[in-house]
From TrEMBL:
The lineage of its organism: Eukaryota, Metazoa, Chordata, Craniata, Vertebrata. SUPFAM superfamilies: Interleukin 8-like chemokines (SSF54117). One of its GO terms (molecular function) is chemoattractant activity. Its main location: secreted. It comes from Umbra pygmaea (Eastern mudminnow). This is C-X-C motif chemokine. InterPro entries: Chemokine_b/g/d, Chemokine_CXC, Chemokine_CXC_CS, Chemokine_IL8-like_dom, CXC_Chemokine_domain, Interleukin_8-like_sf. Gene3D superfamilies: 2.40.50.40.
């Protein structure tokens, strides 16, 4: 009986070590900030700030984080049409203006 238990324990441990198990299931990602995405339109007067985190080694998805006037931060769905327009607007505002005298 002890031999069967020991054998089962060794097989289980070797399976875990060779395949690796991510904590909290397959959707766990400790580098992405956004877990839940919001698609509803946020009124402009409720927005305090917008942070765009491009995909990279930290996260496979582009993250758009809106800071609300209430102090809450929410993650916006970057695939939503209105969020795409918001991202374009923010990028346009942040890019340096080119001088026409060049």
């Amino acid at each position: 009986m002890k031999l069967c238990f020991l054998l089962a324990l060794v097989v289980t441990c070797s399976t875990v070590l060779t395949n690796g198990i991510q904590p909290f299931g397959r959707v766990y990602n400790r580098h992405c900030l956004c877990v839940k995405l919001e698609s509803r339109v946020i009124p402009p007067n409720s927005l305090k700030s917008v942070e765009i985190r491009p995909r990279g080694t930290h996260c496979a998805q582009t993250e758009v984080i809106a800071g609300l006037v209430s102090g809450e931060n929410i993650c916006l769905n970057p695939q939503s049409v209105w969020v795409k327009k918001l991202v374009s607007f923010v990028i346009q505002k942040q890019s340096p203006k080119r001088s026409s005298n060049l």
